[in-house]
Design a protein that fits this description.
By secondary structure, the protein is of the alpha/beta class. It contains 10 helices and 11 strands. The model has no long low-confidence stretch (mean pLDDT 90).
């Protein structure tokens, strides 16, 4: 291939990339703020935090979208009790998210799987393609918030999201103990490297309130999230206690924050939502 042809090919690739970005930014143009919920470690409560924040924001009157980009373990539909639903195609061949409440819509890879036990083997470029398609083709309409639930770590999914939507902000979830805190540092560094705006750190599973005496037991210690936020110079958004009802809600698909609005954990989510909604661009 001669120099001229090579240049033409590079130009063509650049044009394609620009077109892709244009389509995505056009599709997301009605969305005011995009927040990705991330963590360094698995099982710290990202999906719980993402869905609870989305529900609490929607309850407060905002139009909210929830996007599950956990391709290997998409569990938001089950958590929100809509795992039997499917996303429909619109007449213009676009994808309609599933409605959860008046103000909340959900899009997830799980809606595209034949059955929930199906395992998917995806290579990096394919993951990027499917996330790209979600960002380009899902019809969200106007939203105040799009909350994105990412899989753990700093892999292809959060990377694709950060590259395809540079305006993404990040909320980083951790549990209080030292091993999780080590991973949170990696998430902060990753987010900073990709120029994501870090809204702050949430410490989940922060103490257990004894159902008998009402005293707080520091099951996994407490305060690690705040410490690491100070150390790394990022805001601390708040801590959420352990509540066995959250596990129950996750398993039965009955949203915790709307079902137990007076619980300590639901109030903690409300406080975090209050902080997030006050953050200005
Ligand atoms: N504050 C809490 N109190 C009690 N249980 C909780 C709390 N937060 C999360 N859980 C439970 O912990 C488990 C893991 O939570 P979740 O699925 O939200 O984590 P995750 O970080 O999204 O996991 P993954 O890395 O696999 O995506 C769930 O069973 C959930 O119900
Ligand atoms: Mg999850």
């Amino acid at each position: 291939m001669g120099i001229k042809e090579k240049e033409a090919l590079v130009q063509e690739m650049k044009n394609e990339a620009d077109e892709r970005e244009n389509k995505i930014s056009k599709n997301l143009s009605g969305i005011k703020r995009i927040i990705m919920v991330m963590s360094g470690k698995g099982g710290v409560g990202k999906s719980t935090v993402a869905s609870s924040l989305a529900l609490a924001l929607a309850k407060g009157g905002s139009k909210v979208g929830l996007l599950d980009i956990d391709i290997h373990g998409p569990n938001l539909p089950k958590m929100l009790g809509v795992d039997k639903e499917r996303m429909n195609a619109t007449s213009e061949n676009r994808i309609e998210p599933v409605r959860i409440t008046e103000n909340l819509k959900l899009a997830s890879m799980a809606f595209l799987l034949e059955d929930e036990n199906q395992a998917i083997i995806w290579r990096g470029p394919l993951k990027m393609k499917v996330i790209q398609q979600f960002l380009r083709d899902i019809e969200w309409g106007d939203l105040e918030y799009l909350i994105v639930d990412a899989p753990p770590g700093t892999g292809d999914e959060p990377l694709s999201m950060a590259q395809l939507v540079p305006a993404t902000s990040a909320v980083i979830v951790t549990t209080p103990q030292e091993v999780s805190i080590l991973d949170v540092r990696k998430s902060v560094t990753f987010a900073l490297k990709l120029n994501l705006r870090i809204l702050g750190i949430v410490e989940n599973m922060s103490g257990l309130i004894c159902p008998h005496c009402g005293e707080k037991i520091a099951l996994f210690k407490e305060g690690g999230g705040k410490r690491v936020s100070e150390e790394m110079g990022v805001p601390f958004l708040g801590s959420i206690p352990i509540d066995p009802e959250i596990v129950e809600s996750t398993d039965t698909g009955i949203p915790y924050v709307t079902e137990h609005p007076d619980s300590e954990a639901a109030k903690a989510f409300e406080r975090i939502v209050g902080k997030i909604s006050k953050i200005q661009d």
